[in-house]
Amino acid sequence: MSAGIGSQVNRAAVPSVAVQPTASSPKPQRIRALDFTKGALVLLMVLYHWINYFIGPQWGYYTYLRFLTPSFIFITGFMVSHVYLSKYGATDPRLSKRLFTRGLKLLAVFLALNLARSLAVPLLGTDAPMENLFSPRNIFAVFVSGNLPVVGGKLVSFSILVSISYLLMLSGVLMLPYRLYRYTFHFASVLLLLSVLTLGFVGGRSYNLEFVTIGMLGVLIGFIPIAAINDFVRHPYGLGFAYVCYTIGITLWNVRFALLVLGVPLSLMVIYLAAASSNEASIIAREVILLGRYSLFGYISQIAILQILSAGFRRVNLGFTALAFSLFAAFVLTIVSVEVLQRARTRVASVDRLYKAVFA
Fold first, then answer.
1. Which residues contact 16 (CB under 8 A, 6 or more apart)?
2. pLDDT at position 130, please?
3. Is 90 exceeded by the pLDDT of residue 163?
4. Contact (Cβ atoms closer than 8 angstroms) between residue 28 and residue 87
5. Which end of the chain has fewer beta carbons closer than 10 Å to its terminal beta carbon, N or C?
6. Alpha carbons 227 and 15: distance in angstroms, whole number
7. Residue among 95, 77, 45, 50 at smallest CA distance from 308
8. What's the rounded mean pLDDT across residues 302-309?
9. What's the angle, vertex CA 86, arms to CA 300 and CA 39, rounded to 5?
């Protein structure tokens, strides 16, 4: 999930949804199906977060949305190899610096957002009293184990930014040996997988480590030409059968890491297939694609919107009508926030510069 990482590519794109670059194109064109996929994830994440705020994690079908968080990180990894590497080239010294710097910026954004949250939550009255983020126990929970309360809990929000920042910084570092050894990221993926397995063997678990591992698998998938990916997702029956098997697996054994490693790319391919089959001229498709272009901003804005909505709806009787309206409002306001940002960027130069400084 990374709005600053545009879905641009200089390889073959999805015929039905992408604009093919020409010899006179000043820069690679965006893959619209990929933007659609990211935008669909943003909308699904609205539902995911709404459930946490208005129903709670005890909801019986919550398990089937657990692929969402690692999916954003997987797509970030995909962009590293498929977009950044195509744009800069492995030998360009700017690439390593760009990735590492962007990771640091996301960590700074995470800290700034949670500082703002610590000031706003007492006014909104949506959470229990805030804990000290910088106590040793909480530092370990946030930045090492990633074992946090659900969204809306009293420790932190926007925790996905931590894993994304780690993935980007790690990728920036690995770009240095990648210039000499083309299987650097493959080797790193094996080491990360072994680390997850070893930690599990001794009874430990780090969600941050697991998410970075899934993100690194996304980097590996990003080395595959987009034409080959398109050919693969054009087999909907096989894809559907695999997804049904994954669904049965998480129903029987819950969402274990091994199942997520399979389920995240499967879920993304199902959404990507729907994107490639959609009519990009429709209003809905255009809005979803725009959300995909601003996926990181959309992720951040929806949490702020849901915090405010949950504070307001706590004062009314949450019957079915109120619940339905709160979900509808969350979807609409998230889309509106992205539309406002898009128009502000095109009309106000300072807004555009600020957006690029924070998200690009």
1. 33, 276, 277
2. 58
3. yes
4. yes
5. C
6. 9
7. 50
8. 90
9. 30
Q: How far apart are CA 136 and CA 13, in angstroms?
A: 47
Percent of the chain past pLDDT 90, that is, above it, reads: 55
Domain residue spans of the chain: 8-359
The pTM (predicted TM-score) of the whole model is 0.86
How far is residue 9 CA from its own chain's centroid?
Answer: 19
> What angle do helix axes 68-79 and 207-222 make, rounded to 10 degrees?
40
- Identity of residue 259: L
Residue 6 has pLDDT above 50, yes or no: no
HEC readout, 120-135: HHHHHCCCCCCCCCCC
Q: Which residue has the tokens 């709806």?
A: 313
Is the model's pLDDT at 209 over the cut of 50? yes
| HEC-encoded secondary structure of the chain | CCCCCCCEECCCCCCCCCCCCCCCCCCCEECHHHHHHHHHHHHHHHHHHHHHHHCCCCCCCHHHHCCHHHHHHHHHHHHHHHHHHHHHCCCCHHHHHHHHHHHHHHHHHHHHHHHHHHHHHHHHCCCCCCCCCCCHHHHHHHHHHCCCCCCCCCCCCCCHHHHHHHHHHHHHHHHHHHCCCCCHHHHHHHHHHHHHHHHHHCCCCCHHHHHHHHHHHHHHHHCCCHHHHHHHHCCHHHHHHHHHHHHHHHHHHCCCHHHHHHHHHHHHHHHHHHHHHCCCCCHHHHHHHHHHHCHHHHHHHHHHHHHHHHHHHCCCCCCHHHHHHHHHHHHHHHHHHHHHHHHHHHHCHHHHHHHHHHHC
Distance of CA 140 to the CA centre of its chain: 22
The pLDDT of 93-114, averaged and rounded, is 94
Q: 103, 173 in Cβ contact below 8 A?
A: no
Q: Which two tokens stand for residue 5?
A: 């990482």
pLDDT over 50 (residue 337): yes
